[in-house]
Amino acid sequence: MKLASVRQLLPRYLKSGLRYLGKYLIFVGLFLMAAGLSAGFVGGWGPLAGGLMVAGIVAIGIWLVTHGNLRRTWSQRSTQSNTNALLATLAALLIFGAINFLGSRYSTKFDLTETQLFTLAPETQETVRNLGQKIKILVFDRSLSDTDRELLSNYAKLNPNFTYELVDPQVDFGRAQSFKVKSFGEVYLEAGEQKRLVTTLGPESRLKETELTNAIAQLSSTTQATIYFLQGHGERPIEGEQGGLTEAVTGLKTKNFIAKPLNLIREGKIPEDGIALAIIGPQRPLLDRELVLLETYLQRGGRLLALLDPASDGGLSQLLTRWGVKLDNRLVVDASGTGQLAGLGPDAPIVTQYGDHPITQDFKGGVSIYPVARSLEIVTTSGITATPLIKTDEKSWAESEPTAQQLTFTPPQDRQGPLVLGVALERAIAPEPAASPSPSPSPTASPSPAASPTASPTASPSPTVSPTVSPTTSPTASPTASPSPTVSPTTSPTASPSPTGSPTPSPTASPSPAPPKAARLVVIGNSSFMADGLFSQQLNGDVFLNSVGWLGDRAESSLSIRPREPNNRRFTITNQQSALLLLLALGVFPIGGLTLAGVMWWKRR
């Protein structure tokens, strides 16, 4: 009896249960379908999106089966209100899905930082956009930080030819072997058959825009220029010693320059394959022969970079005077106190003022440091364009007694700032005419009937000969011949004058190559700013690299600034100011607040 009752009641309970569940399955089904549509449009039509859509359709189907009397259900007020809520929910979901879809396909970021920290430099954007070949960055590591991934993504958005990939050297061992990977974190640049190590990442070392952009530019460029560094007079060595220029040479390599030492005494000439000659901090004067070579080099349109410390001018003072630059042997003192914030003394001026020149036009108030520097005086010279590059502020002066215990400004021995520490000079070079052939009288020319024994005053220079010329005299005149207004009455039978009295040009003469358009010279009263340890400080390296780029006629786009750094908003206070703040914070303000509260309480009472 009881078993029959259960059999009768079970279908009724199941039917009522399904009807009760089916009442809400419509909402579940619609939600699953909306989720499936969103997943399909945003992430692609994969198994997840398809499964959600099928589950939603099944749920709606169950709801339709369990609700046969739909007309009565729809006429209920609760159904209408629930439907309105459902439609509003679906509309909101569709709107959010559309926003996510558009945001993922057309992402836009706004860099609101003051120095545009998260925006690629214009030079980087130009370099990447102009890529004509496929370039790939391979990071051999287990993982990639979010910062490095975002930086590489910003590069990839500029040009489809730029791609990047994270490679685990333990998983893809063969690929790591092909690149000769030695440690985790190595970043390689691949372009066709070329492979280049960019940098090695570490816990404290992340991928830098400067290194990446310079590597791309270097790999894309096919030309390298040579700059010679004069040696033999105590100049700073280009590598391997303390106070040398190892960092500067490395910086030149990133700009596609090759640094080579040059000993003028041994070589006897300045090689023609160099774009410029650099004289960095000579301690002994150059020999007269070397100075003559330098003078000739500049007269032919050469390019010279001279960095001269106060201790020695290298014997270049007279040469620079002819260019309108006077070297001041006094030490530049900076009394503004800004050097103390960087742990430097008053003999290390910190510069924030620059001239309007391609070398410094992008510095815009940046900082560069010049420990133990001399100032320069610019004298207007005809035919020479001089542009100040580096200038100190008004609180500096040129000190005539740098060994004094206390450095004080003492006019007129000292010169008040602002002072010029660097200058760029340019002088136009008139194109030389083609090389004239050596005077070679034609051996087959016959004398003109109207020719007279005495040549006209406009006759070409003739070699100095005796009145009687030997028949074996060479028809080619000596290069040391001096002009003579008259010709000897007796001439050699094999050297008759031409009808015009001018020699016949030699058929082997060829014009000399045209010199550069202008000779350029950059003079800075300091060499330590580019030495190892200071080269990477602030804009010091940019001053040197941009100077070399301008001397070598490199495009202005290569005169780049390293990535921007956040402005230092911290300020330094004195001990007195610190004590005052401590007194106000722990004494005056708390006691004042308690006193005011007590007075107000007493009045209310």
Say what oligomer this is: single chain
What average pLDDT do the residues reach? 78
CATH classification class of the largest domain: Alpha Beta
Largest sheet: 8 strands, mixed
CATH superfamily of the largest domain: Class I glutamine amidotransferase (GATase) domain
Within the CATH hierarchy, at the fold level, what is the topology of the largest domain?
Rossmann fold
If classified by CATH, what would the architecture of the largest domain be? Answer: 3-Layer(aba) Sandwich
Rg, please?
41 Å
Describe, in plain words, how this protein is organized in 3D.
The protein contains 15 helices and 18 strands. It is an alpha/beta fold and 605 residues long. The protein folds into 3 domains: 12-105; 122-220, Glutaredoxin (3-Layer(aba) Sandwich); 225-430 and 516-558, Rossmann fold (3-Layer(aba) Sandwich). Strands 6-5-7-8-18-17-14-11 form an 8-stranded mixed beta sheet, with helices on both faces. α6 (146-158) links the parallel β1 (135-140) and β2. α1 (2-43) runs antiparallel to α2, α1 packs parallel to α4 and α5 runs parallel beside α8 (209-220). It is elongated, with a radius of gyration of 41 Å. The N and C termini lie far apart (86 Å). Mean pLDDT is 78; it is low at 435-515 and 555-561.
